[in-house]
Structures are given as structure tokens and as C-alpha cells.
Write a structure and sequence with these properties.
- The radius of gyration is 20 Å and the shape is elongated.
- The protein has helices at residues 3-40, 45-71, 75-82, 88-96, 98-131, 137-164, 166-179.
- It contains 7 helices and no strands.
- The protein starts with a helix and ends in a 5-residue tail after the last helix.
- The protein has 184 residues and is mostly helical.
Length: 184
């Protein structure tokens, strides 16, 4: 295959990516919003806080994965794949698709988790305002600031781990993918 035909094939493949991301975003957002709405329906503070923490942690985890995939060196994974180690082949596939994996993890999942955690925060604020019989904006500001700090601080910590230990992060994700028979 000539270089020109490879480039045009690559361009065509990449031109579909925004549409795929758009459709995946809609589907994933609907699923996660449904889960959140179902879990929060008539829920108390503890359940609402647990749902919120799950979405914050999910956003942090996927942010770590997206960063690790872009920072990882493929050489150890080529060796693992050559030795037929579990997860080696999946790790290579992740690294070969680093742009798409990073976009999906950081943008699609990360942004959706941010949006859903924001709506979950609104539910918590309303519950607190009803409980304390107040309409004080301070409750909203306090909860929003706390959630922002947890999310941003968690992502900063996660990025540090992802950059400094990218091989291990990618390997763990690849092992999970191998176990779940993804990319086979």
C-alpha cells in the first residue's frame, strides 16, 4: 500500500472519530444520568453523597487512564505481547489508539462525570436547604467549592500518578480488558 493511500485511509478513519465520540457521549451520558437519577430518587444524604463520590472517582480514574496512555512507552508492552503475557496485546492496542483512548477517557467520560456530579450536587444542595429550611446561597457555594476541590485535587493527584507510573496504569487497564475479553 502506498504512503498516499495509507494517509487517505487514516484521514477517513479519523474523520469518523468526532461522530463516534458524539454518539458515544450521548449513549454514555444517558446511561450514567439514568443511573444517577434512579439512585437519587428518594435517596437520603448518604446515598446522594455515595453517588457523588462514585462519579468523582470515576472521573479521576478515567482521567488517569487517558493521561497514562499518552505518556507510556510501548517497548515494555511489545515485550509482554511477544511473551504472550496477559494484557500485553491489549496494552499495545491502547497505545496504538492513544489519541482516541485519551479523548474518550478524558473528554467523554471525564466531562460526563463532571456534569452528572454537578447535577448530583444540585440534588444534595436542595436536600440540605429543605432540611435546614433555608434558601441560603452559602450552602450551594460551599457544596460546589467542596466538589470542585475534590475533583480538581483528585485529578491533579491522578495525573501525577499516571505520568510517573504510566506503564503500571496502562498494564492494569490492559489486564482488566484482557479479563473482560475486550479488543479480542
Amino acid at each position: 500500500m502506498s504512503d498516499k493511500s495509507k494517509k487517505s485511509k487514516g484521514k477517513k478513519k479519523n474523520s469518523r472519530w468526532p461522530l463516534k465520540v458524539f454518539l458515544m457521549s450521548i449513549a454514555l451520558s444517558a446511561v450514567l444520568s439514568f443511573f444517577s437519577s434512579t439512585a437519587l430518587s428518594g435517596a437520603g444524604y448518604i446515598v446522594a453523597a455515595a453517588v457523588l463520590i462514585v462519579f468523582i472517582l470515576l472521573g479521576i480514574l478515567f482521567d488517569m487512564i487517558g493521561v497514562a496512555v499518552t505518556a507510556a512507552d510501548p517497548r515494555p508492552f511489545h515485550s509482554m505481547a511477544a511473551h504472550k503475557e496477559k494484557g500485553g496485546k491489549e496494552a499495545i492496542q491502547l497505545l496504538n489508539r492513544a489519541n482516541e483512548v485519551s479523548s474518550f477517557c478524558n473528554d467523554v467520560v471525564g466531562d460526563i462525570c463532571g456534569i452528572v456530579s454537578g447535577s448530583t450536587a444540585a440534588v444534595i444542595v436542595l436536600q440540605l436547604q429543605r432540611h435546614f429550611n433555608t434558601t441560603s446561597i452559602l450552602v450551594s457555594i460551599g457544596i460546589t467549592a467542596l466538589i470542585s476541590g475534590m475533583t480538581i485535587g483528585g485529578k491533579a493527584l491522578g495525573k501525577t500518578v499516571a505520568i510517573n507510573d504510566c506503564t503500571n496504569v496502562v498494564y492494569r487497564v490492559a489486564r482488566v480488558m484482557h479479563t473482560l475479553h475486550l479488543f479480542r
